[in-house]
Design brief:
It is a multi-pass membrane protein. Involved in protein export. Participates in an early event of protein translocation. Its main location: membrane. This is Protein-export membrane protein SecG. The chain is an all-alpha fold. It has a domain of about 60 residues. The protein contains 4 helices and no strands. The relative contact order is 0.09.
Length: about 120
């Protein structure tokens, strides 16, 4: 399973870099006015509509792959955390008896702590 996780991490990073590149290549909405004055001549490679629809589709496909790899990496992380919990690594759990003891003996414990004058903390030298 480790090689599958490594492969997904590599694909995830490559997709992330490709998404950043594609977003930077695309023209903004305000670029249409500049194309009317001769700036759109370089878009003939992508057809008469320009590169907008092609780059938008590729960006959408890469975004879907990015979300799928993100989700699969989250599943791997959850499985790894469950295995670590089963391996004997201590896990912090709440005790449910502590609030019941506080409610029953709250007044007596406060008086005994205040009345004794001693602290459970060690003395500093």
């Amino acid at each position: 399973m480790d090689w599958v996780e490594t492969l997904i991490v590599v694909v995830h990073v490559v997709i992330a870099v490709a998404l950043v590149g594609l977003v930077l290549i695309q023209q903004g909405k305000g670029a249409d006015a500049g194309a009317a004055f001769g700036g759109g001549a370089s878009q003939t490679v992508f057809g008469s509509q320009g590169s907008g629809s092609f780059l938008t589709r590729v960006t959408a496909m890469l975004a879907v792959v990015f979300f799928v790899t993100s989700f699969s990496l989250a599943v791997f992380a959850k499985q790894r955390a469950e295995v670590a919990g089963e391996a004997g690594i201590p896990v912090v759990e709440e005790s449910r008896q502590a609030p019941a003891q506080d409610a029953a003996g709250n007044e007596g414990s406060a008086e005994s702590e205040a009345g004794s004058g001693e602290s459970e903390l060690p003395d500093l030298e």
